[in-house]
Structure formats: C-alpha cells, structure tokens
Amino acid sequence: MYNLLKGKKGIIFGALDSNSIAWKTAERVHEEGGEFVLTNAPVAMRMGQINELAEKTGAQVIPADATNLEDLQNLVDKSMEILGGKIDFVLHSIGMSINVRKGNHYTNQNYDFTQKGTDVSAMSFHKVMQTLYKSDAMNEWGSIVALSYMAAQRVFPDYNDMADNKAYLESIARSFGYFFGKDKNVRVNTISQSPTPTTAGSGVKGFDGFISYADKMSPLGNATALDCANYTVSLFSDLTKRVTLQNLYNDGGFSNMGVSTAVMSAFVENEQE
C-alpha cells in the first residue's frame, strides 16, 4: 500500500456484492487510506451485502436513489457531515437496462423501460454532478469517475440500449467535466473497462461470449474488477491532477486491436472442421 489517498474523503455509488467493481474499489480506497460513504438504491441494498462492506471498511451507508434529486442532496449533505468537510472523490458505478432484463430486443424496445434505464445509467451521473456542483461539495483537485464500456463506441448487438446509455454517460462526463474543471478545478473521467463478470453484466445475453472474445483479442487479457479498482485509485490520487474529460481504456489493449492470432486461429480451426 502507498497511502495514495491518505486524508481523502469521498462517496462510492453502486457496491452490491464482492464481485462488483465498486466493492473492489471501496476495499482498495480503504487500503490506500481514504475514507468514504457508501450508497446504493434502497432496492439494491436489500439485494446485496453492502453492510458487510461498510463494517469491513469503517464506512457509513446512506441509501439514495441516484435518479432522485432530493435523495442526492441528502446524500451529499450527510456525507459532508459524516466526513467532516468537502469531498475529494466520487465513483459512479451504476447501470441498469430493464429491456435487457426483460429480454426485449434492441429493435423492439419498450420506451418506458428505455427512459428508465437512461435515467439510472446515464442521467443519474449528471444529477450527481449537478448536486455536487451546486452544493460546492467538491474540494479543489477532486476527482469524479464513472464506469463505461466499449459498446459506447462499437457495436455489441446484445448489449442493447445499455450501449446508448454508456455513450450518453461519456458525453455527460466531458460536458460537465469542462465546467467542473474550469470553475472548481475538479476532474471528471470515465473508465472503459473490459467486460467483467459482475451482477450487472451477467444479465446481458451472451456476456460470457463477450468476456471470452475480449480476452482472446487483448494482448494483456481482460482487466479484472481489481484492476479497475486500482486504476480508479490512481485517478482519485494526486498523481493524475491534470487528467480530465477523458474516456480511459482499462481493457488489456482491446480497444486498439483489429484482430489477434488467438481469434484468427479459432476461425481457422472452425473452417477446417
């Protein structure tokens, strides 16, 4: 441990269970000396084991619906009260598609479901940042990070409307990041993570195929949830003070690959059979 986050305080959204990236990030932040408040939607908290994580890391839990401005204001106010001042870092690790969950094809969406998914997965990021911004809740040189996926740039047919949500999320990071940087010296970035076996990801049809394909394509293999947690810690630290408005790939090199020998070999073998 390097004490990279000693004295820093923040909010971590979305820790559900030990498989989730937010959970791993909370553990690593704690190990690096950071303090934080944990939050998730009340329904998610009933499903997960967030209280176990809170006990392990000495954190308090504040339930909040990230789509609800009153909940978010309460979260920010209480977090500053608990942590004794302004906030240095925030992780937005939230995503949901009811269309995916219900098995609705991308060409046959229920638009009420689509709107709800956009609100939870992307618009909530704007709402979180707007609440922090208006409350002047972030310390100078603070860091805000949201988790994205390559489907924001490229077609993954079964990722469905989540691909649109991630594209919107990344756009919000850039647009709001400009104002947060100019007015408050706060940086905003997204991490485009390898497909990772989490509770959220497992609902996507063919997700095991995404994981296997990406692993074969990437020269370093897939980045794990722990890899993402470590990367997030670096973005929360003072070592990355001038990094902002970026979508940063933590994917073993996948994003720059055209094809790999492992993937080509698989096609050749199939043809020979």
Account of the protein in words:
- By secondary structure, the protein is α/β, with parallel strands linked by helices.
- The chain has one domain: 3-Layer(aba) Sandwich (Rossmann fold).
- Helices cover 47% and strands 15% of the residues.
- It is built from ten helices and seven strands.
- The protein has helices at residues 21-31, 42-47, 50-57, 69-83, 98-102, 111-134, 162-184, 207-217, 225-236, 261-272, and strands at 9-13, 35-39, 60-61, 87-92, 138-148, 187-193, 247-250.
- It has a seven-stranded parallel sheet with strand order 3-2-1-4-5-6-7, with helices on both faces.
- The N and C termini lie far apart (50 Å).
TL;DR?
The protein is α/β, with parallel strands linked by helices. The protein has ten helices and seven strands. Helix 7 (162-184) links the parallel strand 5 and strand 6 (187-193).
